[in-house]
Write a structure and sequence with these properties.
A: alpha/beta; Quinone Oxidoreductase, Chain A, domain 1; globular; B: alpha/beta; Rossmann fold; nine-stranded mixed β-sheet; six-stranded mixed β-sheet
Chain lengths: ~400, ~525
């Protein structure tokens, strides 16, 4: 089968990191990833299914690994060679059309879940991610045992599969995974939003970045966090348009965000810092600059939800210390506590969201797997080129073309 | 003998005409046969004995008892003076406010008055710096009063020091500086640079609170002011005059001192800016070329500093004191004598070059909102009778219109530009939807009261100032402006004057009449 495979080649990672400064396309061509013919991964055991991808998204975390920008943190948590791709809608051998919840959780690795009905991402001990019958890997797309979506097939555990209704198109279904990430980030703001509401103030949540994840967070906020004012810093005009369409109340360019947050939340601007600020901020970028901005824009004792995947960054945390800001990571999804106190699986919520027309404009372009360098170059420059989500199309009619 | 104003009909022999472009200028060739240029009158002679004239005015006031007879031991005397927004450019020392204040203080000292406060009547403008205060009142007055807290600046947001005096028959609340209202005598020291200044506007605006100002600084009043330079057809002035009556009825005793200046605006080497182009000497042409080339290579900030360091040679042409309205009638005659130019008929296109300065950016940046107010609020309104441009006509202005703001002076302008103008450019809509939020913003209030910031509501007032002009004209085109910024203002960007005329042809046809307002120096078109 064909697969885009990433090998552990430190020199190539280093070269890709340099080349990525000149564009994602260059990094793809000379980096540690290649389109290869390989044997399909073996089924690890009972409860596993073969999945043939239909559409598979290209995520920022995929790009950062391909371009050698990812943190060395992952070295102990992933296994080479791996096939990226975790935003997947595909078909199982037993005839189901499914989306994949990519975390390789307790059940996939043969361990008891942390609680009955737990989602793959639940739990507070990650030992299972490097144990069991599989090689280490935090999720499908980063584990050499399972393969990943950027291929003709891979394997997934039943605990990862969500059968989707016929009414949900592939184009919508491929957005379920990022939508789940956005909803998870949105719901992480809820404690601060709830406190603000209880205090009689209008809760303000700032969102930095309006790529796929930022836009999904906006959709999640509007759908699941009641009464919130959403202020967004979006760099490109099409991102600004989409942010408004998804329910943002105020959308400005990033350099105007500080003042926009102040206008919504009150307080003063002291030098570059807000005296108050948003009750919570979702950083959907994950750079040193965005983290610094998120801390600046968030009121004392507010919460920064770090959704964009960072790497090694240099950030002055004096403000965080002084303002007693909560900086919380936001990797993935699992079981959520909703504002009404009920418990829902994030993926269920994401499938519901994808079933609406909210996210329709987010999938911008699809590519054949053979055109992977063009696809990665497009994804790496998505904002600049007026795009949001780029995906591989591996559906049968596309295979026939190959 | 200075020459009066002049309307030049442009023909093929007419040289290119000077247009201001912020901190630079350009020469533009206007179409022959259908263009005209309005030149301001040359500066009137200044009064030789300025101090003598001031003393004479104080001793022989109009419709009022002489100042010495109003002064007595134990009285509370307050002297208020126009702030840094006047005159433009700032005048060479000694400023006439200093001369008048010193004369009043001499008389007060002679009368044994020792309770004297001196207040900068800045309304919702930014506070003046120490250097600016020293320039206006002189070192001697500053050093004698400021350290003891007796020279200070009006605070329109200080409820403890505001006095509510009543309401006009139109329901306009009158609230002014408490010390001024409760003094035994308020001496107001004015500089009347344009016909809009002075009269009851000095006290009822300069010493008022937001509560009071909002009654005349609003889109309706501005729209009905035809023009600001014609007091009798200005709703803004009618409102101020009604408030003046409330002041009088509530017992406020005002002794008004008004002055007028000639239009000797630019010192050497910039004096060519005041000349008519065909009279430029070879030296003038060289100076123009050298200046424009040098300014073109100079960073905007440095160019700004150069221009704001200019001290104008203009001098006093009249001083009159006494009863407010009687004084102001004389003052207005003097202003008109200096600035009025008779112009026959309206024009399809009015062109104007916007300079680096306005009353609201002394030592600061003429940000895009102030460009708007200069064009649509001031220059459009420089008329008596009827607007220079016909209804449905086009205004073409030249200015770089960069999205630059001084965050110390104009913090709420930045938000206004980013938030309000992104939402609407309609003065009525923004006044309903946004004004209160900005007027009551705690941060803006803090910066106005403790820093050097214009009040939070001030950008709204600047926008309202252009209400009539914006409704009157069908299109406003900005030559050489940053396109994105120009569009945010609701105007149309053009690269060159020819492009602008082409764009304007959509509205006014292919052979429109064109009139260029060759200012500064200041002038008022008497359109008949």
């Amino acid at each position: 089968m064909r697969a885009l495979r990433v090998q552990r080649r430190p020199a190539k990672f280093a070269v890709a990191r340099v080349a990525s400064a000149f564009g994602a396309g260059g990094a793809a061509r000379i980096g540690p990833i290649d389109l290869v013919d390989v044997d399909p991964p073996a089924l690890p055991g009972p409860g596993w299914q073969r999945v043939r991808p239909r559409l598979v998204g290209i995520c920022g975390s995929d790009l950062s690994l391909v371009e050698g920008r990812a943190s060395s943190y992952f070295e102990d948590w992933i296994s080479f060679p791996f096939v990226p791709g975790h935003e997947i809608v595909g078909d199982t051998d037993d005839g189901r059309r499914v989306v994949i919840e990519p975390v390789l959780g307790h059940e996939a690795r043969g361990f008891a879940p942390p609680f009955p009905g737990a989602a793959p991402g639940d739990g507070d001990d990650y030992a299972h991610l490097v144990d069991g019958p599989l090689q280490p890997g935090i999720q499908t797309g980063f584990c050499c045992s399972t393969g990943g979506g950027w291929s003709d097939e891979f394997v997934a555990h039943e605990s990862q599969l969500h059968t989707i209704p016929d009414s949900l198109s592939d184009e919508r279904a491929v957005l379920v995974e990022p939508a789940a990430g956005g909803i998870h980030a949105a719901l992480m703001t809820w404690p601060k939003v709830r406190a603000a509401t209880a205090a009689g103030t209008v809760p303000v949540v700032a969102v930095l970045g309006a790529g796929t994840m930022g836009l999904c967070a906006i959709a999640g906020l509007r759908r699941h966090v009641p009464g919130v004012r959403i202020v967004v810093g979006a760099r490109y005009p099409h991102q600004q348009t989409l942010a408004r369409a998804l329910g943002a109340d105020v959308v400005v360019s990033p350099d105007e965000l500080s003042r926009a947050v102040r206008r919504e939340s009150g307080g003063h601007l002291v030098g570059d810092h807000l005296s108050a600020g948003a009750h919570a901020t979702i950083d959907a970028i994950g750079t040193a600059e965005s983290i610094s901005d998120a801390i600046r824009f968030t009121r004392p004792r507010g919460r920064v939800v770090l959704m964009g995947m960072p790497a090694r960054v240099s950030v002055d945390l004096t403000g965080l210390w002084h303002r007693e800001t909560e900086l919380v990571g936001c990797y993935t999804y699992g079981t959520e506590t909703m504002p009404d106190g009920s418990r829902r699986r994030t993926f269920e919520l994401a499938i519901e969201l994808a079933a609406t027309d909210s996210l329709d404009r987010l999938l911008s372009a699809t590519y054949r797997l053979d055109d992977w360098t063009d696809a990665l170059a497009h994804a790496g420059a998505a904002g600049r080129r007026g795009a949001v989500k780029i995906a591989f199309d591996l559906r049968p009619h596309e295979r026939e073309k190959n | 003998m200075p020459r009066p104003g002049f309307v030049l009909d442009v023909d093929r022999s007419t040289p290119p005409i000077l247009f201001w472009r912020g901190e630079n200028f350009s020469l533009e060739k206007l179409p022959a046969g259908r263009s005209r240029v309005i030149y301001p009158p040359e500066p009137l002679p200044a009064i030789d004995d300025i101090d003598g004239a001031i003393r004479a005015a104080l001793l022989n006031p109009v419709d009022h008892d002489p100042l010495p007879s109003l002064l007595f031991p134990g009285m509370r005397l307050t002297i208020a003076f126009d702030d840094v927004s006047l005159p433009l450019p700032k005048m060479r020392r000694p400023d006439i406010r200093q001369r008048i204040i010193e004369a009043v203080l001499d008389l007060a000292a002679d009368a044994g008055v020792d309770d004297v406060h001196i207040i900068a009547a800045l309304a919702l403008h930014r506070r003046m710096t120490e250097a600016e205060l020293r320039h206006a009142v002189g070192d001697r007055v500053y050093d004698a009063f400021a350290p003891r807290g007796l020279l200070y600046q009006h605070d329109a947001e200080d409820p403890e020091n505001l006095a509510f005096l009543g309401t006009t028959p139109h329901g306009e609340e009158v609230e002014i500086n408490k010390r001024a209202a409760e003094s035994d005598l308020l001496v107001y020291v004015n500089i009347n640079l344009v016909a809009m200044d002075g009269g009851w506007k000095s006290t009822a605006t300069g010493l008022a609170s937001y509560r009071s100002l909002r009654h005349h600084h609003n889109p309706d009043t501005m729209h009905k002011s035809r023009s600001f330079m014609d007091q009798h057809r200005s709703e803004l002035h009618k409102s101020n005059w009604r408030m003046g009556k409330v002041l009088l009825d509530s017992g406020v005793k005002v002794f008004q001192v008004e002055t007028t200046l000639n239009t000797d605006t630019f010192p050497k080497p910039f004096d060519f800016l005041s000349k008519r182009e065909w009279e430029w000497t070879a030296k003038d042409r060289m100076t123009f070329l050298g200046t424009t080339k040098a300014l073109g290579r100079t960073p905007a900030r440095m160019a700004r500093n150069i221009f704001h360091s200019i001290e104008a040679p203009h001098q006093m042409t009249s001083v009159q004191a006494g009863e407010v309205e009687a004084v102001h009638r004389i003052t207005t005659e003097h202003v008109y004598a200096q600035q009025l130019v008779e112009v026959k008929g309206q024009t399809d296109i009015l062109t104007m070059g916007i300079p680096y300065i306005s009353p609201y950016n002394v030592h600061s940046i003429l940000n895009p909102i102030l460009v708007q107010v200069m064009a649509m609020g001031y220059y459009f309104n420089m008329y008596r009778g009827m607007p220079l441009v016909r209804e449905g006509g086009v205004i073409i202005l030249t200015h770089p219109c960069r999205p630059e703001f001084n965050p110390v002076h104009h913090p709420s302008y930045i938000d206004f530009f980013e938030q309000v103008l992104a939402d609407t450019t309609d003065p009525h809509v923004m006044s309903q939807k946004w004004e209160t939020k900005y007027a009551e913003d705690d941060w803006y209030r803090h910066l106005y009261r403790t820093g050097y910031a214009y009040h939070g509501v001030h950008p709204f007032y600047m926008w309202y100032w252009g209400t009539h002009g914006m409704k009157h004209c069908s299109r406003v085109i900005v030559v050489g402006g940053d396109p994105k910024t120009v569009r945010r203002l609701g105007f149309v960007p053009a690269s060159t004057m020819d492009d602008a005329l082409e764009i304007a042809s959509d509205v006014v046809g292919r052979s429109p009449t064109i009139t260029h307002l060759h200012t500064p120096p200041l002038m008022v078109a008497d359109v008949v």
